[in-house]
Every structure is written in C-alpha cells, then in structure tokens.
User: Fold these one by one.
Assistant:
Number 1:
Amino acid sequence: MKLSRFFKPLGPVLITLIWTAASSAQASTIYSWTDENGVVHFTDQPQTPDATAYPLSVTEVSGNIEQTADTIATQAADVAVVKEPAKTITTVSLVSPMHEQTIRNNEGIINIHAVTNSKLNNQTQAQLVLDGVVKGDPQTELTWTLDNVDRGSHQLQIQLVKGGKVIASSDSITVYLHRATVKANKPKPVQPR
C-alpha cells in the first residue's frame, strides 16, 4: 500500500494543526506610542515608526477548569481570616472659648472647657498649654480657669498625656483678652459698721 496516497488528503489538515499549535505558543506583541496631545495609545499593530514594542508571553492553561476552581476554593477555605479590633484614635478638642473669640474681662479670667473620646484617669490626663507653656499639673478634669491673664492675644491648646508622653493634642486656638486696665484692682468688700 502506498503511504503517499494515505497522507495526501491529510496534508492540509496537518499544516493547519501545526500552524495553530505554533501560533498559540508564540508570544504576542503590543505597541505603545504617545500622540501630539500627550495621550498614550496601545495597539496590536504599530501605528507610528517610533512605537515601542512590548512582547507578551502566552501561557497555556491545561487541566480541568472545574478541578482548578475546586483547588482554589479549598485553599481559600484553609486561609484563616483574623480580625483585630479597630484601634480608636484618641482625640481632644477645645469647646470654649472658640477660635479668635474676644473675651472681655477686667480681672483677666479665661474659662476653658474641652472634650475627649478617651476616659481620663491616673494614667491618661489632660494639661493646658497657654502660649506654648504648660499651665499647672496634668489633671483628670477637662475644665480650667485662668485668672490675671495679661490682655492681648493668647494661644490655647489641650494635650492628653500618658506616662509623661503627649498622646493627643487639640488644635491650637487664638483668643483675645480685653481688659480695661492692666492693673485692675479688685473691688474691696464693704465692711459692716
């Protein structure tokens, strides 16, 4: 029996199979260029002579797709998700006086109130900063009364401290204290006769 008679009709089929296998295994190329407006383009054919070629390798996927999906699902089930509780960011804010508020008080008294989302105790305390200087000792209350403050503008800020370290600070605000005189005398109490 002549083999050429057997292979002759298979010739075009064999050529097609070989060409398909070769083209699927070869790498593809994409081209990139930038136009006059600065827009970057990507295509499978070079559109300009200065287009940059980027070879892409094609990876053959073999095996049963359902089996691969089952393997991925099994691996995902084995991964333990550990959720940590969200950490609260400690904040402190001045409630009064307000930023750029004018306070009129001849005795130089400024009452200060603040709020925080943290519980104050012996470890976490609040301190008042007036014009960059800490006033008094740290405390567990969020109210302060300053007296005999000089007239003019002053910077106020509240800091939360824990173990001697500042863990939170309020925004610094400016207040303006107006006094009739610098040497305001307190009224003397009336003496009974």
Number 2:
Amino acid sequence: MKNAIIALIGIAMVIMVTVGINTVENKTMRQNELDSNLDKALERTMEILTIDPVYQISKNDTEVAADFIENFLVNTTSDATFKIDIITVDPEKGLLDVQVSESYAQVIGTGKVSARKTVILDDWENPDNTYFTIRFCLDDKIIKQVNIHGGDKITKGILPQSIAESETAVFKGWRMMMPQESDVLYTEDSILNLTVTSDLVFQAIYQEKN
C-alpha cells in the first residue's frame, strides 16, 4: 500500500512538472508569435500608408486602424481570442501605436500574452544606404527605369516625360503593380506623395475616347 501511494505521488509530480513545462513553453511560443505578427502587421500597414496617397489626403484614422487589424489577422494562425487596442493613430504623421492581447486555452485555465509597439513613419531610416528600383511600364515594355535612395520621395523629374497617346485612347495615370497591385490611379501630382521604401513598378493606364 505504501509503495502504491509513493508511486501515485511520483506520477502526480511528473504530471505537474510536465504541465508546468508545457505551459511555459507554450506561453513563450505564443509571445514570440505575437511579437512577430505585430511587427509584420505594423510594417505592412506603414507600407500601405507610404504608397497610398488616399490616406494622406483624407487623414482617415479608421482606414489605417482597419488595415492594421486586417494585416494582423491575416498573419495569425493561432487558435486564440485577440483584443486589439489602437492607442494612437495619425496618418498625417505616420504614427501608429497598438496593443494586442491574446487569450488561449491551456491544460490548466486560460493563458494570456500581450504586446505593445509603436511605429513612426517619419523615423524610417536607411542605415545601409539602400537604393530601390522604380520601373514605369507600358504593357510589357519598360519605358523608364530609375534607382532612388531609400526614404526619398518620387519627384517630377523621375516620371517619364512623354507618354504616347493614340487616336482612340487617352493617358489617365499610373497604377502600382508592385510590391502589390493597387486600385489607386496615380496622377502626376499624387505620385509625388510616395516615399520609396521598396522596389516599385507602375503600369501606364489608358481610357478609350468616347
């Protein structure tokens, strides 16, 4: 009987230690995943803010916040409940301060991790003195290609100086195709709002004449 009790106590201790180790490892893994997903979502949101002048013109806090939430959830695969607090958002200054809390089921009770990060677009630095390539295309043909220092804005001198027009179509502007395809049609004025932080590809867009 005594040996049986000792064996049961030993088994219980092993189970408790195993649960404890599993709980700690699970929390560490989820914290790392949360930090990584938060970084990616912030980076992606600031990318969109940089290349999409609509935000800068409308200064719509709600759109920036909604984009961050979408970008965060796209990267998240955890079976958990998330609470996202947008603490500060200012599209004009390129400021986004966010806190995310995650609650998840574990062997005993509910586990929780959280992370808070702030990003300021104006603080974008180029410590490696990187240059990015900008291409302006007409269908499959590159009509102009330039290299621009990271963090600089597109200037009028970078734009193709002459765009061929036909008797049936008129040139309307440039549509971004890379790093991601955009529905925004950039004019000569709005394209000057873009800060270059990656390689960019623009496609000439024409509209048929009536």
Number 3:
Amino acid sequence: MRKMSFMLIAGFLLFTGCSNSEQVDTYTMEEATDNGDTLVDEEGEVSNLDQLLRFVDSVQEKKESDVTVSNFFNNQVSINELSFDGNKVNYVLKTETGEEKSQAVCEGIEEKSGFISLQGCDGEEDAIGIVQVSEYNINKTRASMKD
C-alpha cells in the first residue's frame, strides 16, 4: 500500500511538473469590442471605424487623443495602440498576449484613398499602415458621426 501511495504521488508530481500549467491570456475580439477598439475582424471588415476617424481628426486639430486598433485578420492578432500628445503620435504594436513587438514616434496620421497610416515615423519604416477600408465606408462613417 505504501509503495502504491508513493507511486501515485510521484506520478502526480511528475505529471504536474511536466505539464505547462501557465496559461497565457490572449486578447479576444469580445474584449476588443467591449473596450471600444477599432476592430478588423477575420474577414477584414472594420467596425468602430468612428473611433479611429475621431483620432485622425484630433491629430489634425492638435488635440490629445488615443485609440486602439485591434486586428484579427488572417488569424494573426495585432494590437495597435496610438496616442497623440498634442505634438507627436506614439505608436506601440503588441501581440495578442500584450507583449510589445515594436514602437515608433510619428509626425502625424494620414487618411488617403482608403488607407489610414502613420507618417514621418522614426522606426524601421517612415510610414506605418494601420487600416485599409473603402472610401465609401469612411464617408458613410463620417456622415453618421455628424448626426
């Protein structure tokens, strides 16, 4: 009986010691929606576009602002955190677990022909694409923002 108890305890300890008990929380579409992020879903559809367009407007008006754009397209999750301090746009790209992948400081943000991108960045790229959306959807969203 003692041997059996010892074997059970040893087996349990071995099993729990070798298993990956650390669960990593990942950012989900539900969380992004609840947080009011501009969201790019698996199909490439953009929701809460008004949040990003308000950020673009605030940067042009030199008003402090921030927005998060969460991209779930092609089963790859990226979290783009943008903040404007009244002078520069600070950009941080994170993984679905919140790990920081890159950052940059940019001169501004541009909305042109359906592309919204950061411009004049000090990182690896001078321009960083944030979202591509049809001009029709941009115009439709802007019209609804006036109501």
Number 4:
Amino acid sequence: MLYFISDASKPVEYISCGNLASKDGFVHPKRNIDSFVLIIVIKGTLHITQNMTNYDVRENEFILLFPDTLHYGYRQTEGELSYYWVHFYVKDPDYSIYNRGSLLRNRPIFKESTDITSTPPGKIFYFPNTGSYLWRNVHGFSSCSFLILPKGKIICPHGGATML
C-alpha cells in the first residue's frame, strides 16, 4: 500500500467529477494524466493497474490514482460497474507518496506508533491509495459533491456519506 502525505493547510484544487455506470465489459482506458483521481466504487469491481500493480477495487472500496503515473484497466468487468470519480490537483509542491517502510523511516511523526492507519497530529493530510468505506446514504451522494477531509474521511455536504 502507498500513502499520500501533504500539508493540509494547502487546499486541493477541484477539476471535475462524475459517475461512471457500465452494464458489462468495461475496461478503464490507458492514461497518464497530470492530476490525482479518486475512484469510489459503488457497485461491481473495477480492475485497474497503477505503477505495474493490479488492483481489484470492489464495492465499498476506493483507489487513489497518482498524477503522472500510468494507469489502465487490466481486464474487463463482469456484470455491472458503477463508480464515482473526482479529479483534483494538490497545491502542496512538497507532497509525498510513501510505501509503508519509507513512511516509517522518513516521517518521524509516524515513528511514535506502528499503527499508520491513524491520522498523525498536526496539519498533515494523510490518505492511503486504497481502502474501504461505509456508506450511510448513497442517494445523497448523487451530485458527486463531497469533501476529502483530514483523518481519511470522505463526506457529502448533503449529509450523505462518510468513510470510516
């Protein structure tokens, strides 16, 4: 697993968002873009490769795709697939992406505990590249208007969803 770390005082810049819905046989196009992409799977399984690692992102899971990194579908979906996506830029020019080992070695704030799933103190935005979430009300999320907050939470302004 990889971890995205950024200065939380520097906001992200929204680009676009939407909902992909496919009946069967979807393959994510091959891309290398200059923005982050957060994909939140609502139904089915997205088969996607990033950094030469294959991911099967299932219902109630997310993946964070990194800028300037090739990503593509490595096989067709079977059955329905639905996911929300949001493209954004990170305004912190010093953001970092770490694997678990380098995170523990290079970020002293995480050395206090080996539990790197908890949010560190201070103004650090910390987000794993994959994970799961819990929907409280998926219908309120249909506008795809949401905030990514420190502590790894995703919330819909309409009170729709929270990732725990």
